[in-house]
Design goal:
With 191 residues, this protein is mainly α.
């Protein structure tokens, strides 16, 4: 389901940006719908990855968190953020709670990106849109995140073929659940 054609709108009197027609109320509706669909999709994704872990299958997990940590640990330490974090009694970056929280936050951000940037311009039904989004985000991970970590393209230096396949299944499941729920909730709210 598309949210209509795009148009050019003036922003701040000078700059012009592509924005969805009927932005504003429809944008806030898209954001709320994305967060609801994204919360369910990330819960399913975590359950699928946990099932693979229980079966002893190693998948590409935590790559973005590792990369963010490499890039931001030193600047955040210089700013004193680590001390503030610890003084508030918040979980450290190596704890399961933090890792899960990071995964949830990234999942919700991907859901927002899907709803606001991708879904309005992708053609087809929810299945095609979900598969297209899964492919796009998988390519970013496979061609940028994992190689920057030294794991090779798609993590081929560290993953078995089974691990790579299972990661693709969990990743694609996230986007299919997201696209299906986003479409269903958008129709329900609009119809």
């Amino acid at each position: 389901m598309s949210h209509g054609p795009h148009r050019i709108a003036a922003v701040s009197g000078r700059a012009r940006w592509w924005v969805p027609a009927g932005a504003g109320r429809s944008l806030s509706r898209a954001v709320l719908t994305a967060l609801a669909a994204g919360a369910v999709a990330i819960a399913v994704n975590i359950a699928v990855l946990d099932a693979f872990d229980a079966a002893g299958i190693v998948t590409a997990r935590g790559g973005l968190q590792k990369l963010v940590r490499i890039w931001l640990a030193a600047p955040l330490t210089r700013l004193g953020a680590d001390g503030l974090w610890a003084s508030l009694g918040l979980p450290g970056p190596d704890t399961p709670v933090f890792k899960t929280g990071f995964k949830v936050a990234v999942g919700l951000l991907m859901a927002l990106a899907y709803a606001v940037l991708l879904e309005p311009v992708l053609r087809g039904r929810w299945l095609q849109k979900g598969l297209a989004a899964a492919l796009l985000f998988w390519l970013v991970n496979a061609l940028a995140v994992l190689p920057l970590l030294g794991e090779g393209v798609a993590g081929l230096r560290t993953l078995t073929a089974g691990g790579l396949f299972c990661y693709a299944v969990a990743h694609t499941t996230f986007f299919l659940v997201l696209a299906w729920l986003y479409d269903a909730l958008s129709r329900r709210r609009l119809g």
